[in-house]
Amino acid sequence: MIATSETAERDFYEGKWAQPDLSAGSLRNFLVKKERFFVRQLQGRQGRVLDLGCGGGWRLFTTVGPVLGVDLSRSSLRAALALYAGGAQADLAALPFADGAFDFVVSSDVLGHVPLERKDAVLAEIRRVLRPGGRTLHYVEAEGQDPLMAWARRDPALYERHVVAPEGHVGMEPASHTFARFRRAGFRPLAEVAAYRGLIYVGRVAQLFDNEYAARSRCLRALVGLCKALSALAPLALAANLVVSAALEVGDRLLPLDWAGGVMVCYER
């Protein structure tokens, strides 16, 4: 998160993802793979938690212990305070907390928003505020190397406009790069899972490709049309996404590591 663009960055995130997540071991938490990871890794554990890029907060983290949230959005922090013990508006590379202050440092869908040149500084801060023996858990967006996303990157301008810019994913990198980055920062791996390999959910297909991309490929245009039709009816969308989820369970075991669209990691300091 670059200091010279701090105001613009805060403006971009203000009000985004401010809705609190009140789930804590719900059925959805077990159906959604990245949520299931946090449930299982935190089950039975206790300690002080720091939630990076906390948005409106996630009740699940409060089952572990008192939680402090960090975010650039003031409205997100206000929402999170309904769940959390406190919060701070701060740069992830300059956390306003003492060395070793937390037993757990967590984030979900956050580190993919950190520019590549700033990631090592953020990981250094995570390590600094984590106590020796403490754990850090993250779901990190990845830059999939699968055929569809590789094709999309052939036009850098379109990729920036429709994949990177809308959600601020300026720091995505292949799954293997994320694993290596944490290890270089001095963390001991406990779990490194490359997920969502080669497939995306139906709503996401339309979100990413119902634009100039669809105009360039008859097959993609047909896929976008099908996904839009399925998304228009909630029962069909649910059924389609359950099929995708089942396919991902197989694909995540068989397809190449760097085809992953995200990674779930747990490391120990």
C-alpha termini separation:
23 Å
Q: Fraction of residues in helices?
A: 40-55%
DSSP strand content: 15-25%
The CATH topology of the domain at 3-141 comes to Rossmann fold
CATH superfamily (homologous) name of the domain at 3-141: Vaccinia Virus protein VP39
Which ranges are low-confidence, i.e. pLDDT below 50, for 5 or more consecutive residues? none
Shape: globular
> What's the number of extended β-strand segments?
7
Q: Which value, in Å, is the CA radius of gyration?
A: 19 Å
Give the integer mean of the pLDDT values: 95
**Main sheet: strands, sense, barrel:** 7 strands, mixed
Structural class: alpha/beta
Number of H- or I-type helical stretches:
13
Verbal overview:
The chain has 269 residues and is of the alpha/beta class. It has a domain at 3-141: Vaccinia Virus protein VP39 (Rossmann fold, 3-Layer(aba) Sandwich), CATH 3.40.50.150. Helix content is 45%, strand content 19%. The protein is built from 13 helices and 7 strands. It has helices spanning 6-13, 27-31, 33-42, 59-62, 74-80, 116-129, 147-152, 156-164, 175-184, 202-209, 212-215, 218-231, 234-254, and strands at residues 49-52, 67-71, 86-89, 102-108, 130-141, 188-197, 260-268. Strand 1 (49-52), helix 4 and strand 2 form a beta-alpha-beta unit. Helix 10 (202-209) packs across helix 12. The model has no long low-confidence stretch (mean pLDDT 95).
